[in-house]
Write a structure and sequence with these properties.
- There is one protein chain.
- The protein is of the alpha/beta class and 453 residues long.
- The strands form 5 sheets. Strands 8-7-9-10-6-11-12-13-14 form a 9-stranded mixed beta sheet.
- The protein is globular.
- It has 13 helices and 23 strands.
- The chain starts with a strand and ends with a helix.
- 27% of the residues lie in helices and 26% in strands.
- The protein has helices at 74-80, 100-113, 127-137, 152-162, 187-204, 225-229, 276-281, 328-341, 367-379, 405-414, 424-427, 432-435, 446-452; strands spanning 5-10, 16-17, 33-38, 68-69, 84-85, 89-94, 118-122, 145-148, 166-170, 207-212, 232-237, 244-252, 260-266, 269-272, 291-298, 301-313, 321-324, 349-355, 387-389, 392-393, 399-400, 419-423, 439-443.
């Protein structure tokens, strides 16, 4: 009889090694390797001629309109690429208490009211706890079937017998399989459970949502391969004490990965925010230096958001640089450009850059807005409150063009802005219609921006 093999897995990234190490070579975290037993591989499986898989031609595969289901939440449909795809496996991650279970229960309610058969599998909460949340949300008109089970094999068998349209598994770290000897939530168990659910979704054509806990670094607990196994990965972002939540798709085999959905947490669940730009600009100071409004594209949606900068003299030899919601290295790069190409002496000043509203943006189009916010704070001169700014800034101080210019300007006009500072290359491609609605100020380098400000 073959011996059981013992290996060590990293709880953070899933790195596998034959011996214990203090620091994981994959993610460089300390004391994250755990010992797990791996059973011997079974003998080679013989496939008879009658059981060989049959190939199907590409043109033989038929597509139907019913391959997607509407979740009843337009913001979620946008992030998913148009709706819930039958036979898909969706991973929903986020901090504890952010609203993952609430959102999924709302989806169950909407689909059940439309006549779909829904199964909610819970390994964390009892039936009464789920009932209490459902009563708080309200609006349940038809039955949603509940199953409290931690054995994935028993849950999969019950799902096959009931043949539902959608299944929710809350959460993947609480489920376990008898085929694996390690404890629930370990790397091996998470892999095995996800594999069983993926096979179930593809064979039965059932849309399955699984909830995944996150680590202190903000990634789904378990190996990184978990995200590669599923079809779609959604992350809930936001603070527990804040009312707004952002649902972001970081992987989607059926749509764009740049779309976001904005929700507001209220007493009776999550409500959609149809105009995120208005929400992000509420409370914006109109006559304060260091405050500018930029436009970033999140998928196909233009989003207006405020960038704040504070530049103040420092009494220390090493000036402090801090950024919130924006890449720290990008801010340092733009500060160096201002010192070299604009002659601004920022080496003796602390610089703080903040993206209001709890958002995180990485689009290069906000570079010009960061530059203008720093200049405004450094010279203590407020920017005109009706001005919107966007553009990419290079290392030589040039302002490069960006995409989706007309969509950004249309959103600015909709929000009441009267002028826009943008790259000169984009100004030349604009039509007369949009130029008549808003004043366009084209710039080719940061020196021209300083003159305008």
């Amino acid at each position: 009889m073959a011996k059981t093999k013992t290996v060590f897995f990293c709880k953070e990234c899933g790195y596998e090694t034959a011996k214990w190490l203090g620091q994981c070579p994959g993610c460089h975290q300390w004391n994250t390797l755990v010992e797990e037993k791996v059973g011997p591989a079974s003998g080679k499986k013989m496939v008879r001629a009658g059981n060989r898989p049959k190939m199907t031609g590409l043109f033989e595969v038929s597509m139907e309109e019913e391959d997607r289901m509407s979740s009843g939440i337009p913001e979620l449909n946008r992030v998913l690429g148009g709706g819930i795809v039958k036979g898909s496996l969706v991973l929903v991650g986020g901090d504890p208490g952010i609203g993952k279970s609430t959102l999924l229960l709302q989806i169950c309610r909407n689909l059940a009211n439309e006549g779909k058969k829904i199964v909610y599998v819970s390994g964390e909460e009892s039936l009464k706890q789920i009932k209490m949340r459902a009563d708080r949300l309200g609006g349940f008109e038809k039955e949603v079937y509940l199953l409290c089970e931690t054995d994935i094999d028993a849950a999969a068998e019950a799902i096959r017998e009931s043949r539902p349209d959608m299944v929710v598994v809350d959460s993947v770290q609480t489920m376990s399989s008898e085929q694996v000897t390690s404890a629930a939530g370990s790397v091996s168990q998470v892999r095995e459970v996800t594999s069983v659910l993926m096979q179930l979704a593809k064979e039965e054509g059932i849309a399955i949502f699984i909830v995944g806990h996150v680590t202190k670094e903000g990634v789904v607990a378990g190996p990184k391969t978990l995200e590669h196994m599923v079809d779609t990965v959604l992350y809930f972002e936001g603070e527990q004490n804040a009312v707004y939540r952002i649902l972001r798709g970081v992987k989607n085999r059926f749509g764009s990965t740049n779309e976001i959905g904005v929700f507001e947490m209220k007493e009776k669940g999550l409500y959609e925010v149809t105009n995120p730009s208005q929400v992000m600009l509420d409370g914006r100071p109109l006559d304060a230096s260091g405050s500018v409004v930029v436009c970033s594209m999140e998928g196909t949606r233009p989003l207006l958001i405020e960038i704040q900068a504070l530049v103040s003299p420092t009494s220390f030899n090493m000036p402090r640089r801090t950024s919130v919601g924006i890449d720290y290295n990008r801010v340092n790069l733009l500060l160096a450009v201002l010192e070299k190409k604009a002659g601004m002496q920022l080496g003796g000043c602390d610089a703080y850059v903040n993206l209001a509203g709890g958002m995180r943006l990485g689009e290069p189009a906000i570079d010009l807005g960061i530059i203008c916010a720093i200049i405004s704070s450094y010279r203590n001169l407020p920017v005109h409150p009706g001005t919107m700014i966007f553009g990419e800034v290079g290392l030589t101080g040039e302002v490069r063009g960006v995409s989706y210019v007309e969509q950004r300007l249309t959103e600015a006009v909709k929000m009441g802005f009267t002028r826009c500072i943008l790259p000169k290359t984009n100004e030349e491609s604009l039509g007369e219609k949009i130029k008549n609605q808003i004043q366009i100020l084209g710039v080719s380098n940061i020196r021209e921006v300083i003159e305008i400000l």
